[in-house]
Amino acid sequence: MKKIVLTVMLLTGMSAGLSAAEFEENQKACDAGDASICSNLGIMYAEGTGVKQDYSKAVEFYGKACDAGSAFGCFRLGSMYYTENGEKQDYGKVAKLFGKACDGGYAEGCATLGFMYGAGQGVKQDDSKALELQGKACADGFAAECNNLGYMYREGAGVKQDYSTAAEFFSKACDGGDAEGCYNLGYIYYEGAKQDYSKAVKLFTRVCDGDNGSSHGSYGCYHLGDMYRKGQGVKQDNDKAVKFYTKACHGGVLHACSNLGSRNASKHSKKNSSRNLRHFPFVCYENKSGGNIDNTLYQGCVRSSEKCTSVGKFHFGKYPNNLQAHEAFERCSKGNR
Length: 337
Description:
single chain
């Protein structure tokens, strides 16, 4: 059936490419009350997938989906009013639509409505109601909201600080596939009140292995580098430390790039030790910093007008060994060349 083809194409991000007859068939299915088809037609017009982008048409089809009982359609319609895409911004209407989405079991509707109660957008400001809705979103499987709740309890933001409760929410987020939740839980085990290096290693490994360019993935690799360098929760291994620092450095974690050039991370590495000595300016060679490194991040003598490649040559050209180079940029970081 063509309406099934439409659904699959939208879910996989493909251009619908439906013929005029097929498109008309789907419109008829929507008019007959098929809420999922109405929602998908709304997506097509909102995103310009297979049709000319038309926010007014998107609002029309999302409205039909919502009226037909689609919680997702209500959420998408509310989002259109929230962002002023096709309609004048109307927080009161948005709150009602997100409420319908939440009542219909769409967890993200609960989360965004909770945010609105916290901010007092379209509803009377109510922290208790906000927390209730955020909790419902997490319980209904919205992993990102579990992570948000974990953050709130960890930092004591709007709630009493409670590391145990924070860990519970981060764990739910992680179990739900939220990589940031895994990282945050790992960090609690790494440096928080529930220190457990073995658990931290497992969680940091999970986010590092699954890194897709996200900051938490790169920082997971960075912390693994530290833990292998220090032997925290794992057998001390400088080669593995270099491996994880390198991946973190590729991800833009400048401290990892600095550590790659330090004596602690690479002096005793048995493989390619001479190459490891050059990893200090690695971030520049990989074009991750635009040619300059922030000198506040323990990067040696870098100033805004200096190219980091020249700094690398200065340190690893002037000084004959890693220890002297390391001592040189130690002095430099304190303002003494």
